[in-house]
Amino acid sequence: MNQPLLVFNEKGIYCEKAGVYIDAWRPVDKCIITHGHADHSRWGHKQYITHANNVPIIKHRLGEISVTGKAWNETFKINGVKFSLHPAGHIIASAQVRVEYKGEVWVFTGDFKTEDDGLAEVYEPVKCHTFITECTFGLPAFKWEPQAEVFKDINEWWASNIADGRTSILFGYSLGKAQRILKHLDTSIGKIYTHGAVENMTEVVRPLYSLPETTLITRDTSKEEIKGNIIVAPPSAHGSTWIRRFVPYVTASASGWMTFRGARRRRAIDRGFVLSDHADWEGLLSAIDATGCEKVIATHGYTDIFSRYLREELGYDARTEKTQYEEESAEIDTSASLSNQKIENED
């Protein structure tokens, strides 16, 4: 095949044969969307195609759009090109996109993780010739502990804060991370309160996913009522005037970037829990191996280091491509100097 099945241009990832983009970062006529995070599902496309469970999510975020929902593994053709969506395990309703034309198969992962988190649809390996993979955490330094151990620590932290007469505030993205946290909090310890951004998104997905009862914090919610319980809030709430009303409180962040010593201190967080919705180093490598692919394209993350390892150590035909996916940028920025030091050490 002279022309690659998928190409990267100024608007996004493009399949010329079908006249369709995947997760385009500029407005296009037709776009397949992998998941609901703002960097992958942008406003302005004329027509959206995504998994059925992601339809209410992106409608909540983008308003009244023209969108078609597809089932998992449902094949649909556009100008003779076959497409299908497969679970990516990143967050609820997140998908990989399989693209096939005349026997040539490409897979774009979007964002993904291989661990079953008990909420998002479990990652599904998809055989292909060319695999386009994220590598947000594409360094050997990133190795996740089993989720059960992390939530054991989180729930013990919450319980100890109650004993000290303090409210627990746990930060996580309002779509994906927040619902994962809610799913695994031990409600026998106390009540779960939520920031408006978290509650609004949770209500959108609650009809489709089993989640515990939560209580929205309003202007009428008193500090005495909340004391000793736990609040789940987006990272943007940290340091805001909104948070001051809950004194005395203790804060924590659930993020893969908590791997770096000093990241918690730099963000003025009391406690860090290493919990990511992306694959770690081993998860990335195992995912690539499971596809049986020959070619790998590394995007958004430690692309140069990761692709070089794939070429020099594992023998893949691997290269990099630039994208405009920036979901984790706020956390990356706050850990920038630490990350750079780690890159130098791994290099």
TrEMBL record:
GO molecular function: exonuclease activity; ligase activity; RNA endonuclease activity
Keywords: Exonuclease, Hydrolase, Ligase, Nuclease
InterPro entries xref list: MBL, RibonucZ/Hydroxyglut_hydro, Xnuc_lig_assoc
Polar residues composition-biased segments: 332-347
Signal peptide: none
Annotated EC: 3.1.-.-
Organism domain of life: Bacteria
Region (Disordered): 322-347
Protein name as it appears in the record: Ligase-associated DNA damage response exonuclease
Protein's organism: Aequorivita lipolytica
